[in-house]
Input
Amino acid sequence: MTIISELARWAIPFILFFVPLYGYLHKVPVYETFVEGAENGFKTAVKIIPFLIGMLVSIKVFVDSGALDLLINLLRPLFLAMDWNPDLLGIIPLAVMRPLSGSGALGVATELIHQYGPDSFIGRLASTLQGSTDTTFFVLAVYFGSVGIKKHKYALKVGLLADAVGLIASIWIVSRVFG
Amino acid sequence: MVNLIWLVMLICGIIVAALNGNIDQVTASALQASELGIEVAIQLMGVMSLWLGIMHIAEKAGLIRHLARISAPLVRKLFPSLRADSPAFGPIVMNLCANILGLGNAATPFGLKAMQELQKENPDQETASPAMITFLALNTSCITIIPATIIAVRMKAGSANPVEIIGTTVFATGCAMASAIIADVLFRKRNGL
Output
């Protein structure tokens, strides 16, 4: 594990060291080329603003109004019917929040970890779930928005299916490994 | 489908707020979210500029081409519609690497760059191409070896072993990724692509 975390710590400094040096040795005008590329960062960030705002408004109204809590309550019987560990009910807010909002999900996960304890069943499950799925709606809006794609076809279905599988797999493996 | 979900979240939110007697919350939330959108975009602007600048150097120096060639046998299979020498492979691979290492901030610029390259080969500029959807599916379900943020949260919460969830995370994300790839291939076949 220490090797992996060291790798993560060194990855970015290594890239910042290696790429410009390699470029210079291959006769690339490094500073000018950097600036040329960086210019696109500004343009791309501006282009995604409408898509970001559209997504965030809808999600925030849904969450703040209490509609999310309502949805969670509606899902409760479904979880109970599966005859799973009753502790599992605690994970529903995170499961629903995860595809919608990255910062929202991190908030919910942090709350769960503190409320139940990091080494509890829910704490471990929340950690696993948080690490194993991504904010599907955000990625979809931003990535497609940046190039002006308006028709998404089956992209959302694939993304949400992966989220659902990630949830089920997390529950299964955490129950298995930590009992 | 996105249209419908977007509308349902907005309408349901407003109806629930009205029923709960806190309709003012809708106004406040909508305005806050608009401001948040700008904040997120401005934060992205800096990271994006940094990584797109570095990547432009890597491109000019031929590094991206090398990277794409090394990883080609595996990644190319997932994108049958792309030319074997497509310039999209470089940023796709860099995005996946950044995701695997849990470098979330660095992953987004590479992902957006990949989308721009994919868009150049897309016959219909308003409709997502199969390759774009495959890339998105890989991106949202990508294996993460180091879930750094959540390890930090566990550490702060006083966990006896903050990193013990790495194994379960890799397993869960592996299942999610496999199902995304399978579902993507099935959808593609159903759509005759």
